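Support case: thiamine diphosphate complex. Customer-provided input:
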Amino acid sequence: MTVHADLNTRTAAQVLVDQLSIQRVTHVFCVPGESYLPVLDALYDSGIQVIVCRNEGGASMMAEAYGKQTGRPGICFVTRGPGATNASGGIHIAQQDSTPMILFVGQVERENRGRDAFQEMDYRAFFGGMAKWVAEIDEPERMGEMVGRAFATALAGRQGPVVLSLPHDMLPLPSASADVPFVETMETAPSATQMVALEELLAKSERPFLILGGGRWSEPALNQIAQFVEKFGLPVATSFRRAHHFHPLHPNYAGDLGLGANPKLVARVKASDLVIAAGARLNELTSQGYTLFDIPNPKTKLVHAYPGAEELGRVYQPHLAIHATPQTFAAALANLKPRRAPSDVTAAHRDYLDWSEKPLPQPGDVNISEIMIWLRGHLADDAIICNGAGNYASWIHRFYRFRQFNTQMGTICGFMGYGMPAAVAMKAIHPGRTVVAINGDGDFLMNGQELATAFQYKLPIIAVVLDNSTFGTIRMHQEREYPGRVSGTDLVNPDFAAMARAFGGFGATVEKTQDFAPAFKAAQASGLPSVIHVKFDAEGISPTATLSGIRAKASGA
Ligand SMILES: Cc1ncc(C[n+]2csc(CCOP(=O)(O)OP(=O)(O)O)c2C)c(N)n1
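Agent response - structure generated as follows:
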């Protein structure tokens, strides 16, 4: 960490970068703009790694992924209107996924504000509905205060994004701003009375169940959850794209609640008489389209423990609302004493194993469930899987097994194009670990340009592109609603393996399941950013449906 020695001669931009160092920021993700050159200059000898991206969408998603992975705000710098609008994707993800993140945006000179000056935007209006806080730093003297507040806000309660705009002419001005010390994450704890009430509920429950999700977890807290469920005999489901919160082979694991959830798991949650939602906000996908519990008063007894008070009672009025962060809630759970024998969780875990153990048949020469099962057998426990959105992800959710905390990097908001930037950020943070981006073909080209960033920084990520030459998810819905009328969903794709080579990487094409393993091993051996282009038949549109089957059903055939 380099903090400028003479605090009296710093510019506002230097105060900002010193502040990032004090907050222990290791990487920033950016696309440059003339609007914030003084910051780029201050970063020059800061010791913070600057990762220059090819699109602000990629940069903001890398920052979001950094925040999701490290628990500290991911930092992104972009220029005015064009940069800010491109970067909005990462802000939407950080909001929906409750990820701490700070986006710094260049702004026009203060004297020109309100003139609709070149690339001028009102960031408060644009980001107002997405970010936890949006502000413009007008006074160089207030830099420390504003950046300190940005860290505190992004990290508080339900975590999320903050946007700070930086008028161009303010950044090089001298600033006597004081530095703000390292901002610790605030913890809120359940009360003793609430935990007594929860112990009572557990003592009376015949079929208790625990849903684990949300952000702000840590390995020790998740271990305490495991101890608690073992002691009391609760099956555990993880919420949408938080499967890495619980070991899949733990005897209490009941499966992943999200898109394409096991119907037996859904039925089990519905039949339980006490559901403890630990850290999960019970979003639309986890709640199976808001069908899991009655709104606003669930029939089952719902105990909702969540770090943001404003989320408790947003949709469901819980029987017991606990405003607590995951760490303190898990510690309090671990102290509870069972008053009855633990419930039997064998059937719940067996349902999960039956659901995920064996590959499913799939039309054509490529079977994606077999590929996922190969990956789960061959990747190290700490390998990180990143993905965007598309039907292809259902195979990951069902057949891959996340065996270590923070190895699943996907978006709760189903944002296409996340896999590539997330993988670049993960490899930058964890150079010694295997990082795989699994993409659909539509998905891949939304941020595939970040392959150049992977190459520039020598980050050998492995991208798998599952190519069915269609925006498959939408095609599936289209066949269901407008059978046989394919409109706006077909894709004609480039040779993705050749594209990888053009970017200086390794590329391979796979057209048969058995060719995947050697291609993956060759990608690993190459030490280069790699793309494995897997061509498969769109007829197998999801793990459980075919296009012709959906069309026939929709046409009443
Ligand atoms: C940025 C973004 N744009 C559009 C969508 C809507 N959408 C969801 S899935 C999907 C198709 C994904 O296609 P592909 O990546 O080829 O994967 P597949 O569904 O075929 O497996 C689309 C367009 C989205 N979720 N995110």
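Residues 389-392, 414-417, 440-443, 468, 470-474 surround thiamine diphosphate (CB under 6 Å).

Case will auto-close in a few days if no follow-up is received.
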